[in-house]
Amino acid sequence: MKKWLFFTLTPLLLLADFDATISPIDMTIKKRMVGKSWHRGCPVPLSDLRYLQMPYRGFDGKEHRGEMVVHKAVAKEVVALFESLYAQGYPIHQMRLVSDFGGNDWQSIEADNTSAFNCRKATGSKKFSRHSYGKAIDINPIENPYISRNGHISHKASYAYKKRRHRTNTPKDRAVLLQNDRTVRLFKQYGWKWGGEWQRVKDYQHFWK
Prior knowledge:
alpha+beta, five-stranded antiparallel beta sheet, three-stranded antiparallel beta sheet, 5 helices, about 20% helix
């Protein structure tokens, strides 16, 4: 059974080799987010969000340290999910805050960036996306694209992944998410839903709760 250490103002630490931290949004992170991924009128205050730092396995086969912002209600669960992804060797291209891209979802996807919180409207909707609540994660969005009803993909690099199958066992190939892959099953076991199961459009990168 995993044990956790709880702190009020300091990071939450995992007692394991997976060196992950969960912290409140401090002034440094706030300055990075405000006016970019968070602004007045967002459905959740910064006080309800948590800043995560955790290792991941890159496409180069090496360990990297990523960062992510999620809602406090799912923070521990997200760390547990990504610990499992790390243990099973699932590759991630990069993991940065959307704020590094000015809060621009397009640019974050173009960079094949795995991310979570971003206060924005849902694609094709006037309603806030689940990302605006810190309860959605996009994983390797180039390899796992959003595909419209007519089959259009906005990002050119993603067309190589329109046909959903594993072929070469390279890191990019293993990053492709399919119905029965361990990663998809893992998220579903935790009660998360997957955009790859939508009927009219497909959003293979998208998990939400």
